[in-house]
Amino acid sequence: MPHRATLPQYEPTTPPAQASDQAVPKSIQQASVEERPQLTAAARFFSRFSVRLVRPGAPLRQPVSSTAGASAAALNGVCVLPALLMVLARGARLVALATLAGVALNTNLRRNAMYALKAVQFLVHGSWSYTRGGFEKHQRAYFRAEDVAVDLHDKHVLITGANSGIGYCAAEALGLRGATVHLLCRNSERGEAAKMQLVQKLSERTGAATGVSVSTSAAERVHLHVVDVSEAHSIRRFVQDYLERGFPAPNVLVHNAGAMTSPWKATSEGVEVNFATNVMGPVLLTDLLLPSMLQSDSGDHRVIFVTSAGMLTERLETKDLEWRDRARFDATRQYAKNKRQQVAIVEQYARTVSPDKVLFVACHPGWAETPLVQEAMPGFYARLRGSLRTADQGADTIVWLSCVPRSRIEDGMLYFDRNIVPKHLPLSDTSYHVRDAEELLRKVRQRIDEISAKAESSAARVAGAET
Q: Mind listing the domains of the chain with CATH numbers?
């Protein structure tokens, strides 16, 4: 039996193939060919590797030239020339950064020059923007306190992986603003401890901290659901229980739970555990809750995939989703691939579901001090421990996306520090076509259906044996 209900297909008013340049925000419009000065031989060479911009509902645009002009230079550093200057300006640190790239990304730089280039760009840019210093810089520059000073007393928020780290901090921040928060946790003991801690904090700080007057008690606004998002049967059981208990369609669904497990390991359903947690589980949970969102009268629902900046170093994998070559398995790269897949899936949802009902976005928290980083990337954590963001800072964009009016959110985009950011590094080879995202989501759903068919067959055999 298919795992999801048949969903109405959203037809954009302008067909993707005919989308006009006027529909593109000015910040990402490209200069015309006539505006470009003559390229030097070096510039022509490097411009071949320029980033491609992908926006939902449209085919890939032409690469941005390294000398495309002011409009392309406005891409927060996406233009090729600034990227080259950035790398050169940090020449004294490149050796250290390359070493760090090898430790953090487990990559042989000599065998893969392109991957090395992406890794160095990622680390250089990250040292400026993804750290605690980057957050504080952006906070001073353009954060507005009034954006998150809102009353969410009539909102229900579901957050996976909410017992610690970014997930817990997002739950606390939204609960302080009056939201009813649902903590989706795999471990019942840790989940119960997180719930008790959250209830206590909300009891002490709601109103005084935010100015929001909440009529219901903190205990009534915090719900714990024990669910393993890597297991399809656990997700189905949760959704059935959630709806049967009369909870409304979630106003905000935050896919925060993540895994970076090594060595290669399968779930009880035979699925590689990182892919199951980071990709398959979120898709199934979204598909099962989406019909209730579409039928809701509130008309304001948001699905947020918490991705990672590490995805900038990876191309979109659509073939071997579960990394079946176990001898060469690399958990860090599989995690980064999964996060790239999340971004592509967000784009595909945005193309097929009307934004009038449900908005789909991705965000990445920067380099935050979380249990996942400490446990899965000890070398990276040890070297950057003093510079990592707090979990509260990592959760800030999740909170912002949950609070601001929907008119300020652009469907299908990637957000970082309350701003839309590019999905690809300059000089990278990570761009992909719309059909690749379509194929990816189709294969993920096909894998879910295979698990469902296997479970039904097993249940039928057991029932037959008992009779």
A: 39-137 (no CATH), 150-450 (3.40.50.720)
